[in-house]
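Dear support,

I submitted the protein below through the web form. The confirmation email said the job was done, but the results page showed an empty box. After a refresh the structure appeared. I'm attaching both so you can tell me whether what I see now is the final result or a partial one.
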Amino acid sequence: MLICNVGHEAEVADWRVRTMICASLLNLESSWPQEVADFIQEWMAPLWPRPLPAEGGMVPADELFVLLEKVCKEAFEFSLLVRSSNDRYLCELPDPLSPFQDDSEAQSRQPCDDPSLTDETVAYAMSSALVKYPFTDPKRRVKLDKAHVVVF
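What the results page shows now:
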């Protein structure tokens, strides 16, 4: 885990919150959610549904893009909310070959011939855990979402 400004967490949190307050007073509309949605659609173009009449239960491409835009906007708003908090939020990724812990959730198994690697060993992580370190007790680790891992 990368920790910058060790011993100055309170000052960094205060600076971050004050910066977010000042930025919110500008009332600027961000283009980031739209740009991210456009990028995802472009990246997924080979799999993106073609504009067809709504039949067979398939979601029309336009409606799918509206949903994607909504997800991107909500993710952006959540990131602003997290940044305006005095608490510290980190994404912590379990190391490959580390022991399986309670802050991870096994999603699948990776076949392996090595008998020393068991279902208690992380093969790789598909997503990180979201962890909160409260401002009032920075040593306390609160798991908000478990990491999704593949085990042996």
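Response: this is the final, complete result; the empty box was a page-load delay. Strands lie at 88-92, 104-109, 122-127, 129-133, 142-145, 147-151.
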